[in-house]
Each structure stands twice: as C-alpha cells, then as structure tokens.
Design a protein that fits this description.
A hairpin with a 4-residue loop joins strand 3 (78-83) and strand 4. Helices cover 9% and strands 50% of the residues. It has 5 helices and 15 strands. It is mainly beta.
Length: 384
C-alpha cells in the first residue's frame, strides 16, 4: 500500500500486506491513557470472532476468524501491531472487527483505583540482667613468710592491708567486711532492667492488584582473608542484612472489601560471629497469608517473638561447684532478652479520579515536616 507503507514506525506492518489483507482492510489506531499498549497487543478474545490467542511477546499478531473471505484475502482478518514510543495500538482489518476491538480496549483502558497502604511496625524489647558475686581475700604471715589467698572476679574487693574501707566504686548492692591485715570479703548484687519500644509508620501508594514492598534493614559487613605462603590479605567479604521486610498486594473486591496478600519477614542478629571472616548468626521469622478485610480496616500480625536466655559463670575450680557453699567462690550473671514484633497493615481505597483523598491523607505528614500542602488558606475578614 503506497501511502500507508510510508508511515513511520507502523509502515512495516502494511508493506507485506500490499497484495493481501491490505487490499480489503481498514486501519485504526488507539492511544492508551491509563495502561501500557503492550497490555492489549496480544488481546484476541472470542468476542472478535475467533478463539483467543496471545502474542507471546511479539510486536504484532494476526488473528484469524471463521467465515467467507475475499478472494484476494491473506491469511488473517485482523492484524495488530504495537507502537511503543507513542503507546498506541494500530490494527488492520474489517471495520466490524475494528469496532469490536475499539469498544473492548476502551472498556479495559480505565483508571485503576489507588490503594494507600499504611504499615505500623512496633518492636518491643525487654532485657533483664542479674549479677551476683562474692570475693574473698586473706593475708597472713607464717614466721617470716607472707601469704595471700583470694578468689577475685573483678568486683573490686578491698585489700586486707588497708586500714579503712574505701567508698564503693561499683553500682548495685555492695557489702564489705574488712578485718585489717587479716581478711576482707565483698558481696555484689546488681539487677538491670531495660524496656524499649521502636515504632515505624511507613506509607506507600500502590495501584490496585499491584505489589508494594516496605523494608527497613541493617547491613553488617564482614571481611574475607586470603592467605598464601608469603602474605595474608584482608578484603571486604560482603554484608548480611537483618531487619523487617513487608510485601503486600491489595486487590479491590466487591462490597468495599479488600483481598490482601501479604508477607512479613523479621530477622535479627542473635550473637557474635565465630570468626572475623564469618557473618554473625541471624534468626529470621516469616509470616505470609491472604486475608479479606473491609476498606479502611487493618490486618494485625503478631506472635513474631525472639527470646534468648544467657547464663555466664566465673568460679574457682572445684570449690565453686560445691552446692550452697560454692556460692562464696563464684560470680554469675544471667541475661534474659525478649523481643516482640507487631505489624498492623491498613489499606484504604482512594476512588477519586483526582485523588482528593490523598491530599487529605498527606496533610498531617506535611505539617509534621513543616511543608506547605498547597491548599488555599481561608481567613476571616471584617466587612463594613
């Protein structure tokens, strides 16, 4: 076809048809406003007169339909091609099929509702540490020989050679018994309780039936050592991530309902690395599910807990292992740490074409950031 074949970009579609379908077909173009034209390039429903057929990633497709054909007809009644730079579809075929294709595309190319996803992540940490230790020191003289016996654990006991008890330097409960130039005993007890709460409130706007990801992670690097016969070199070995990652996919259903597909992953480092070239151990908890909730309601995810108990003990060999009496020859520390995570996922549908609801939802964060929301200010005026 002389003049259609000369059209830039789409002319290659009509050149091979100059002696076939182009002799009887019409052409029509549709510019897409809300969707990518590639979404409709493989569209061939039965309503157009033939069985459905996907493009399989090609730029054009020939869709065959049953019924009588013109004598000079090619192998297809409808040819669709994609003009990616202009985001439009170009079709060649019978007017009846073009009309049906246009109605179908216009009904599918509509603005998708937006969903505002608000995630409230609360982390509660309870840590309790208890320390209890006893130190004993004994000095004496046997003839011309001086001796000293002691069980020390770094608690700061008083030297028996001192003439007075110095002020206590350690925190907690401390008891000192001193017999100058004879013996001294120290009892130290301490309990530390730490309660913490970390709260994050990320928000994201996502198109209906699309996936959004919210994440807050901490990267811990570790080194890599390459040893040879002459020299050993140390370099960056990589990093390991730990934190909270949330993936959510809301789908608007009938009756102001939302089908929410979500996945929550919480990971924490639970100790020190065994060697500098190894990453620290990490524990990960993951929850994934699908729930149906009304518009504006929240999905509550709980039960993500990490609890650890640590007990360390320093003691004098043999004596510290004696029941009851061994308490005088050892120092022990117990630590219990418990972390709990709660995640609240709230999905709200923004149905307005101009997203007026988003302006109101963004007003509070804008005020906290000290930014102008762009709304006109109405100030009262005195009329005389």
């Amino acid at each position: 076809m002389p003049w259609l074949g000369a059209i830039p970009i789409v002319g290659h579609v009509f050149k091979p048809l100059s002696c076939g379908a182009a002799a009887w077909g019409l052409w029509r173009a549709w510019w897409r406003n809300w969707s990518s034209a590639g979404r409709f390039a493989g569209l061939a429903p039965e309503g157009l007169g033939g069985p459905g057929s996907a493009l399989g990633g090609k730029k054009s497709a020939a869709i065959a339909t049953p019924g009588p054909r013109p004598a000079n007809e090619g192998s297809a009644d409808l040819v669709i091609t994609l003009d990616e730079p202009a985001n439009r579809l170009v079709a060649l075929g019978e007017g009846r099929l073009l009309d049906q294709l246009g109605v179908l595309i216009d009904s599918l190319d509509v603005a998708s509702p937006q969903v505002l996803v608000e995630a409230l992540v609360v982390s509660l940490t309870d840590t309790k540490t208890r320390q209890l230790g006893v130190e004993l020191r004994k000095v004496g003289q046997d003839g011309s020989t001086l001796y000293e016996l002691a069980s020390l654990f770094g608690l700061g006991t008083v030297c028996p050679l001192a003439s007075a008890i110095p002020p206590a330097a350690a925190s907690g409960a401390t008891g000192v018994v001193l017999s100058p130039r004879d013996y001294s005993a120290l009892l130290h007890a301490l309990e530390a309780v730490n309660d913490g709460r970390v709260m994050t409130v990320p928000k994201v706007l996502v198109t209906n039936n699309e996936q959004a990801t919210l994440g807050s992670t901490l990267q811990t690097p570790y080194v890599s050592t390459n040893a040879s016969n002459t020299v050993a070199t140390t370099s960056f070995g990589g990093s390991l991530d730990a934190g909270t990652t949330i993936s959510i996919k809301p789908q608007i259903a009938a009756g102001d309902q939302l089908v929410v597909t979500y996945s929550v992953s919480v990971s924490t480092f639970v100790g020190e690395s065994a060697a500098p070239e190894l990453p620290p151990p990490r524990q990960e908890n993951r929850v994934a599910s699908v729930a149906t909730v009304p518009d504006g309601f929240a999905v509550v995810i709980g039960g993500l807990e990490v609890e650890s108990d640590t007990r360390s003990e320093s003691r004098v060999p043999w004596l510290g292992a004696i029941p009851v009496l061994g308490q005088l020859f050892r120092s022990e520390s117990k630590t219990r740490q418990k972390s709990r995570f709660f995640v609240f996922l709230k999905c709200s549908v923004l149905r307005g074409d101009r997203l007026e609801d988003l302006k109101y939802a963004s007003r509070a964060p804008l005020e906290q950031a000290g930014l102008d929301d762009g709304f006109p200010r109405l100030e009262p005026r005195v009329m005389r």
